Amino acid sequence: MLEDFITVVSGLPRSGTSLMMQMLRAGGLPLLSDDRRPADESNPHGYFEFEPVKRTRADQSWLGRARGHAIKVIHLLLRELPADGRFTYRVIFMKRPLAEIIASQRVMLERQGKASADEAALMKIYQSQLLQVEQWLAAQPAFSFRLVDYHRVLENPLDVAEEINVFLGGDLDVAAMAGAVDATLYHQRSTEA
């Protein structure tokens, strides 16, 4: 049952985490989020973030409210979630080509009037972080996780929705999840094969 665990949507920034949160909400899974970061041109349907996640190391009081909900946790903060057995987690980890992620971040930062980091350096950092996070997740008994390819979500939303539904116990509205996918928002395409 969904109430037995916390559903965590994670991945690198700009990897499709907000899209997955939209799908879960449409499928009937309540979200634990706030409106501190409003929708904008980079994420017109919203970011679905929850501010207390950023302070999890110091304050874990919000975790009890997260059971039976989906919460968005950036990849670097997954290790802040207590793995001591008080909670169990099902992590949907979004994967997208790094070149697209970095291009999408650059565009978002430009819209905000900010400079982006060196792309080659960022690529290496992200590769290392992804490897470490996936190894860490695989070693944690309190965490089960499923890697979800961003392109598959766009190309086969119904198939992905069915897989996520099974992963989360089978209580979600798969057709509504698939219907929440807006492929017109896919702008930063990879030039890699």
Describe the structure.
Helices cover 37% and strands 12% of the residues. It is an alpha/beta fold and 193 residues long. The chain has one domain: 3-Layer(aba) Sandwich (Rossmann fold), CATH 3.40.50. Strands 2-1-3-4 form a four-stranded parallel sheet, with helices on both faces. It is globular, with a radius of gyration of 16 Å. The model is unreliable at 187-193 (pLDDT under 50).
| Shape, principal axes of CA atoms | globular
Distance between the termini: 40 Å
Question: Which superfamily, in CATH terms, is the homologous superfamily?
Answer: P-loop containing nucleotide triphosphate hydrolases
Helix-strand makeup class: alpha/beta
Q: Report Rg.
A: 16 Å
Strand count, sense and barrel status of the largest sheet are:
4 strands, parallel
Instruction: State the order of secondary-structure elements, H for helix, E for strand.
Output: EHHEEHHEHHH
The DSSP helix count reads 7
